[in-house]
Amino acid sequence: MTPLHLRLPATSANLGPGFDALGLAMALYLTIDAVEAAAFGIRATGRNADLCGDAAHSLIFSTYSSVLAANGKQVTPLHLELDNEIPLGMGCGSSAAALLAGVLLANHFGELNWTSQQILEEACQREGHPDNVAACFLGGMTASADNGSAIVTATCGQNLNWNLFVALPSTSLATEKARALLPATYSRADAVANVQNTALLVSAFALNRGDLLRTAMQDRIHQPYRMEACPLLPLLLPLNGAPGVLGVALSGAGPSVLLIADETAKELPAAIRKAANDPDLEIIQTTIAAGTLVQK
Prior knowledge:
It is built from eleven helices and eleven strands.
């Protein structure tokens, strides 16, 4: 088989109120060059290279092998040249990128000949919810829903020139732990508030209305229950509406915090560190990204 080159973006899901429905692709990438090999192996560079290079515990390889086995295909070992820019366990879509990469590798080297929709649905099914996977695959701000028989998606905002700042605490948070913090039921008032804000949020991306984000990125479904496990969030939420800051929200399930800003927010990293009372806080500045690149 011919080699395969993949470039998959990081993603920030939820964006406040769009719980399990919205995701935003960010220009931080997992880049993979894959070839058939005698044994599974990874040469990893970039962020968390030691974890990414652990072939025995690789989510990419386990997904790849599982997809092939489930479809009656021989599991051919691969060697990956991998470079990673996506923080692991920080609410930046690292697992979605790895799962999607595994499915794409299986489709190519197993000659499954799946459509883009089949690839998307396989990865979403394995992730358990479509928000990160859909945004990673399609790019921009992608809304997604499972209608019971298919994953339905819509993408906008790929060309917006908003700046994205991701504030990263020193410790990670497992998605399973973050989900366990949420209540089983919500009040009608909280549900209605999130529906209203989600409608505004999609409109903001579709219409380039950054002025809507201050209200649109407010959430009453998951963020209030994750404050203790994500201590950066209560410290940085007051920056919402500060000069140049369009909106603030937890990135995915946390613990990182996403701030969306316009071109006037040149001193925002300093303001973030001051609000967090941490002069050494890691902040990644990036932009909205296109979806996954696949080259044979």
